[in-house]
Automatic annotation (TrEMBL):
It holds the Pfam family SnoaL_2. SUPFAM superfamilies: NTF2-like. Residues 22-122 form the SnoaL-like domain. InterPro entries: NTF2-like_dom_sf, SnoaL-like. This is SnoaL-like domain-containing protein.
Length: 142
């Protein structure tokens, strides 16, 4: 994983570590409710149109995914932290299926933090990973 953060900026380092912990606990360990209660404010603002706003809604969404798709997971390829923001370039696997050959969904998440280090807002863009033989270049999606 590539990490881009000023190690002297303790706020940015804290926010990056919180984002990494959220991914791991909420998605990889399937402890969504506990993770959102630990790392998000209750009034968390969600911009993904598929999930309702609020920490509880995010916990329920990923709780359901973890329960119905126990092989769901996330791999983080890049993470950038600066001030109140963390950007992550990731691949989500098996969020909607149990196919062992799932190519995944590439994503970029943008998280905004408050002064206490809690996540208060989220934006994302998602793109299905397609067969490299069907792409216009050989650069890959992550």
């Amino acid at each position: 994983m590539e990490k881009i953060v000023d190690l002297k900026d303790t706020k940015s380092v804290r926010n990056m570590n919180t984002a990494l912990a959220l991914y791991d606990e909420m998605i990889n360990e399937h402890n969504a409710i506990e993770a959102v209660n630990k790392y998000l404010v209750p009034e968390y603002i969600q911009h993904n149109p598929s999930i309702a706003t609020g920490a509880e809604a995010l916990g329920q969404a990923f709780g359901y995914i973890g329960h119905t798709h126990p092989t769901s997971r996330v791999e983080i390829h890049r993470i950038i932290a600066a001030g109140d923001y963390v950007w992550s370039h990731v691949i989500f696997y098996n969020l909607s299926n149990d196919d062992p050959s799932d190519k995944g969904t590439a994503g970029v998440d943008i998280l905004k933090f408050n002064d206490e280090g809690k996540i208060i807002e989220h934006w994302d863009v998602l793109q299905e990973i397609i067969d490299p033989s069907k792409t216009a270049n050989t650069n890959g999606q992550v």
